[in-house]
Design goal:
Elements: H1 6-27, H2 32-36, H3 50-53, H4 61-82, H5 84-114, H6 121-127, H7 130-137, H8 144-157, E1 162-163, E2 172-173, H9 174-191, H10 200-220
Helix pairs in contact: 1-4, 4-5, 4-8, 5-8, 5-10, 8-9, 8-10, 9-10
Length: 228
Amino acid sequence: MNNIPPVVKNLLIINVLFFAAKWLFEAQGIPITQYLAVFYFDSPFFKIWQPITYMFMHANMMHIFFNMFALYSFGGILEAHWGGKKFINFYLITGLGALALQWAVQAFEVYQITGSPVNDIATLEALGNQTIYSIYAGPMVGASGAIFGLLVAFAMLYPNMEMYIMFIPVPVKAKYIIPVYIVIELFLGVGKFSGDSVAHFAHLGGALIGFILVKLWRNNNTFYDYYE
């Protein structure tokens, strides 16, 4: 791992440690996900530290593998481009932006059902609504929001860099493939398909904040007005 930039390397290590801790604690019957995942801001399970810790928690091996593979693949290039400080700021801000959009969508859904984005427990229990239950009791985990921010930044800064995508036998430029991912996430998020437990609007939130940050940094500093 000597060729991996320091911030990306530390993020990889922290995510793996969190995943290992999750496995060890839950094997002992300790529900660590209940404390370190993030819940809807009006949920009784919500804790103030969760908007940060949720980014380092993952549901299963496949979840962490794909997120860490993307962090390794794109994060190193972006850290080298921005430097460690700007890179970690970008990563954390896009992760928080992902949560903000997810919460906004959930708040709208709750408002549609109850007439308010915040409610007391008695009101919620009286409703017995499955959507309300899934919002208030369903935790969110994963670095995917921040990862989508990295993907968007990569496509903006290196639009002509060619990428090999699974099941596509020819390389595709970043400026073409990344927008396709975003459109797919939007379709899945709006569609609300049965059995889909992925927080698609969190992915879109990370992508949106990533886009805004790159535009702001590029406009405020000529050094960041660099494209390949």
